[in-house]
Specification:
Layout lengths: L3 H31 L4 E6 L1 H4 L7 H9 L16 H9 L4 E8 L4 E8 L2 E5 L7 E4 L4 E3 L9 E5 L12 H15 L1 H6 E6 L4 E6 L5 E6 L3 H19 L6 E3 L7 E2 L1
Parallel strand pairs: 1-3, 4-7, 7-8, 10-11
Antiparallel strand pairs: 2-3, 4-5, 5-6, 8-9, 9-10, 11-12
């Protein structure tokens, strides 16, 4: 019996401690939920914000309030679902990710990561659109135009299928490779793909048409193009050639 009472006293102390913690947590949570949102702090991830101005703070506020249908500032915390706010923000095609959090003072913090376009597809009969490196499609907006290369496809006004169509997959590979190389990102202004799936590249500087050929062996063709810009043009001058052919293995044909 003597051994039993100390054990019971210990269990009672632990039970009292647990109950006290639960009561304290409930009290703090009740006070927290009764607070209202006093301030909204919106920030954009720096690596996706530089020269990328499709979204601003007002756009995020409109998304959070669903164009004014919901109150944010002054609203009680218990009526503001962090998950619901994040879902509203993610409906925008230019949002790659978002995180909403709040503090005990009643402030809401919103961190936004934007998608970054790598190319703009131009269509005669249907709206243009941008794509990012993950092949996400984004509509063109009036407030900002991204300075990325443009793409036209002679045989299709439809949206590309980057998952199933081989030619579209290879085109995406080319766009990613061009964007990843700073020199090409600055130099190549436009790509045209004809009805035979042959690609032509047009530079920002110089009068050359680069006959890229089929959308295969892309990396080797870009290596040859870099040799042309690094070794041939400095000797011959930027306007010495009008046609550069990269179609053939181990050859650069300049005319």
């Amino acid at each position: 019996m003597k051994q039993l009472f100390p054990k019971l006293r210990k269990e009672i102390r632990v039970s009292i401690l647990i109950v006290s913690c639960l009561l304290l947590w409930g009290f703090v949570e009740t006070r927290h939920q009764s607070k209202t949102c006093q301030k909204l702090v919106i920030s954009f991830a720096q690596d996706t914000q530089l020269d990328n101005y499709f979204l601003d703070e007002e756009d995020i506020k409109r998304l959070m309030s669903e164009d004014g249908r919901h109150t944010i500032i002054g609203e009680a915390h218990q009526k503001l679902s962090v998950k619901a706010l994040e879902e509203r923000i993610r409906t925008n095609a230019y949002v790659a990710g978002c995180q909403v959090s709040r503090n005990v003072k009643g402030d809401l913090f919103v961190q936004i990561t934007q998608k970054r376009p790598i190319a703009r597809f131009v269509r005669d009969e249907k709206p243009d659109f941008y794509i990012d490196s993950l092949a996400s499609l984004m509509p063109v907006v009036r407030k900002y135009t991204s300075r990325v290369l443009t793409v036209t496809r002679e045989d299709s006004q439809e949206l590309p299928n980057f998952e199933l169509e081989t030619a579209d997959k290879q085109l995406l590979h080319l766009l990613r490779a061009l964007y990843a190389e700073p020199f090409f990102r600055a130099q190549i202004a436009h790509i045209h793909v004809d009805k035979y799936k042959q690609a032509y590249l047009y530079p920002q500087i110089g009068k050359q048409t680069v006959e890229f050929g089929s959308l295969f062996d892309i990396d080797n063709k870009l290596k040859k193009l870099k040799v042309f810009y690094d070794e041939i043009l400095p000797l011959k001058g930027w306007n010495a050639y009008k046609r550069i052919n990269l179609k053939y293995d181990h050859q650069i044909i300049c005319e």
